[in-house]
């Protein structure tokens, strides 16, 4: 991979080299470079929140593709802004200048539903109402019900700790997150994991040692984590 190149002054990644690196690693249909399409991917529904000009967009289809994007952004010093359905009202999915917008909406599989243990494993692009329908086939119910439930994704719900009318009685998204598999990391020489490594937090059981609360914190907008590919 090429060494990081920055635009002097503004500190933005060199968009041309960044796009070239992404193109060498990912299938061509994953990359968004068209200015109009990229602009549409660069903000959520918070009209009051400013949005920057992204250098590129990537529509990831798998965890491995997310890992590659994280590594390339780290190499080029480019910010990475994950995005779900873009229905948020907080500006959390808004681009910053020179960033890569990582669209996770196509990672939309319900991987597992375990009726006996009352849990499911999903990718971040699963739509809230689609998950409700999937677990209903097993006689189960997923309570968090933001007003955007017909369109918003579980990844976005986790990132913003979405609630809804049912939250007063049943709790918000954080109360239903047992664990996360997230692409995180830092420089290998200084960190136990390198940029782009996938790690697992949390557990598959409701009862847990009190110190194991990282996955719950990740569902708090005040402590944003990397998005979970699973």
Envelope shape: globular
> Which CATH first-tier class of the largest domain would you pick?
Alpha Beta
Radius of gyration of CA atoms, rounded to a whole number: 18 Å
How would you state the average pLDDT, rounded?
85
Helix content: 10-25%
Protein structure class: alpha/beta
How much strand content do the residues show? 15-25%
The domain tally reads 2
Low-confidence stretches: 1-13, 221-229
List keywords for this structure.
230 residues; alpha/beta; Uridine Diphospho-n-acetylenolpyruvylglucosamine Reductase, domain 2; Uridine Diphospho-n-acetylenolpyruvylglucosamine Reductase, domain 3; 2 domains; four-stranded mixed β-sheet; two-stranded antiparallel sheet; 7 helices; disordered N terminus; disordered C terminus
Q: Can you walk me through this structure?
A:
The chain is an alpha/beta fold and 230 residues long. It folds into two domains: 15-103, Uridine Diphospho-n-acetylenolpyruvylglucosamine Reductase, domain 2 (2-Layer Sandwich), CATH 3.30.43; 110-223, Uridine Diphospho-n-acetylenolpyruvylglucosamine Reductase, domain 3. It is built from seven helices and eight strands; from the N terminus they run αβαβαββββαααββα. It has helices at 15-25, 35-41, 63-76, 128-136, 154-160, 167-170, 214-218, and strands spanning 31-32, 56-59, 80-83, 100-103, 110-114, 119-122, 179-184, 197-202. A four-stranded mixed β-sheet has the order 1-2-4-3. It is globular and about 50 Å long. The two termini are 27 Å apart.
